[in-house]
Amino acid sequence: PSLDEIVNLHDFEAVAKAILPAKAWAYYSSASDDEITIRENRAAYQRIWFRPRVLRDVSTVDWSTTILGQKSSLPVYISATALGKLGHPDGELNLTRAAGKHGVIQMIPTLASCSFDEIVDAAVPGQVQFLQLYVNRDREITKRYVQHAEKRGVKGLFITVDAPQLGRREKDMRMKFVDESGVAKVQENQDGVKKDEGVARAISSFIDPSLSWKDIPWFKSITNMPIILKGVATPQDALMAYDHGVAGIVLSNHGGRQLDTARSGIENLIEVVEALKTRGPWPNPKFEVFVDGGVRRASDVLKAIALGAKAVGVGRAFMYSFCAYGQEGVEKAFQIFRDELQMNMRLIGARTIDELTPDMVDASAIHSH
Ligand code: FNR
Predict the structure, then answer these.
(1) Is ipTM over 0.90?
(2) Ligand 1 pocket mutation, candidates 81, 266, 337, criterion most atoms within 8 A of CB
(3) Which of 79, 121, 157, 304 shows the smallest number of beta carbons within 10 Å?
(4) What are the residue ranges of helices labelled H in the chain?
(5) FMN hydroxy acid dehydrogenase domain: from which residue to which, for each copy (predicted)?
(6) Residues within a 6 A CB radius of ligand 1
(7) Entry pTM
């Protein structure tokens, strides 16, 4: 279909499935084990209902916000998804270019198929980019990478903490590893590549499973970028993160690709915010909470924000948007978010992001422990 025929973000997924080589589709779409968590990521949003307010003069609505102090035209950022070139020859640059044009923040993956510098070079002046970090067993490599990113102007360091070992994405594992554009590039720097277990395992063997809370002070000593822990799932760890002095957390289950039957980020948000309120008034300017997983609609975004998230990360929907249409597909995805945000904010009765409050949603079907 032509881009004009794309009406919502689900459409991009259907198109990607139809046009991608089987191996790329397997890598992008797969989740771990029985793929229960990936389904739950969508289902959890459907258990939350709106309680809209009326008669609030919603002639103008504004969904712009700040993320870690950086301006963002959407309350959504592009989360890190590895191996963009499996989907399109320009890979992650499709995201960078669209994001630069529309004031959206991109999180650059450690395992991007384009090099880090290519992605930074493709940004326009003032464009905000974050870095997703997989911590290498060789900390010198990590230190150089982080400090290089800071020097190149990256504004936030998202350390992935939910992947000491990669989940078993069985769809992906069934596709025997065959060298292909994008994969080769990422492999260059990594050793111990296993060639018979799917793309994900082949590229990730450098990740350090010994990473622990004791390493956090070291990260703080090597960079001035705000540090965010990506992949937190419990109030206990949210408080640990807060007490270790990091700038925030992403409540995430890695798009269902790590621990299967882990709860969804949106479901965990409520009890995490409750716990963080014991450390001071909420929202807390010193600590931001993000959510990702299963976001396909502006209504999902608004639910997360109403429940206390600062912004929401989107992985697959943006990735699928460039597979067939390149940069233009990503721009269309932003447009869809804008259209849906405008309509939903008017119908909810929120003129700004700050006007989204917990009483505007009924999350009683989400159990808290
Ligand atoms: C990811 N994600 C991810 N996260 C991360 O920290 N490092 C990575 O390299 C990747 N790579 C990656 C590849 C692919 C194909 C997917 C789908 C996801 C997880 C990503 O950042 C985010 O947490 C999820 O994608 C959010 O869920 P949705 O939006 O895909 O449902």
Answers:
(1) yes
(2) 81
(3) 121
(4) 9-19, 22-29, 36-46, 93-102, 116-121, 139-151, 170-174, 183-187, 198-203, 216-222, 235-243, 265-276, 298-306, 316-348
(5) 1-366
(6) 27-28, 41, 79-82, 109, 111, 132, 160, 230, 252, 254-255, 257, 292-295, 313-317
(7) 0.95
